[in-house]
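Subject: sequence -> structure tokens, single chain

Hey, anyone have a minute? Need the predicted structure for the following. Not urgent.
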Amino acid sequence: MDQKIVSVIVPVYNVERYLHKCVESIKNQIYQALEIILVDDGSTDNSGKICDEISKTDDRITVIHKENGGLSDARNAGMDISTGDYIGFVDSDDYIDKDFYEILVRNLEKYDADVSCCRFVFEWDSNGEREVIGNDDSLHIYEGTEALKEYLYGKTMDPFAVNKLYKAALLGNASHKDGHLRFIKGILSEDNPFCIELFKRTNKIVLVGKSMYHYILKRKGAITNSAVSQKKIDAIFYWDTIRQDCHENYPDYEKYVLRRQMLYYIGLYNQIYKDDNYSAEADRIRSFVKEHNKEVQSSDICERTIKFSVRLLSASSAIYGLFMRTYKKFVKRAKL
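Reply:
Had a minute. Here:
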């Protein structure tokens, strides 16, 4: 029986240093029935030229050159022309293990799932440090909206589009026109609304604990300590929309959204509370924290660290700030 085709969509923007390693990790997959689509999103370095050169080495590779529209727009452009039975995404500065698609396809077909997932590895480009997320032999099968709950909880279902393989009929492409799920253009953290809408549509998702996707970070601490921008703030406040959606349609899951929201809000508050340029955003976060303090304290899923942070910030922003400054000095001294 012929193998199903996997369309691998790779958005490319100014990644000439990483591009060869990324594409080679895809070309050298054990599972060879691939359609590889490189979407040059208006790169201003040599990335577009490298895409054209790489395409000459493998007839499975197609290159699109387009005006810069951002990650979401590039992924959407790739989906629109893809013809595979399954769709996957790999960011052009990341790479994947050799058996990545072999295992994801096998689980997708064995369990007749709509989506097949794995765990991942954070790798810091600056110093070679690694943080492995998962990497065990566990297998989880989520039916109905169970995957949505797990995603909102954030324990096993990771908030990324790239460590997953999707049935093309679910997303829609040139060969499967029934589904039509696309990334929202022009926002940061575009994976969140995409995945939440996806999980509303799925009947079954399979997740293997093996860590096979390598997510490259440009510097240590980039996940939580990257520079504040309005796009980042908008992305974090987007969780208000997610919580409202759950309140109206999935009320049993609202507590999971609240936990994630508190994690994001407190993390953002820690970055901006000393910056007068973001005083309105800091006040908005503190008002939200105070409003939901009782819910958090009575929650059966919020950890003690979340409850403590929420209680302290609700009581006094000044005391909270003093505690954070003292804590940071203690941590810094302990590392010396």
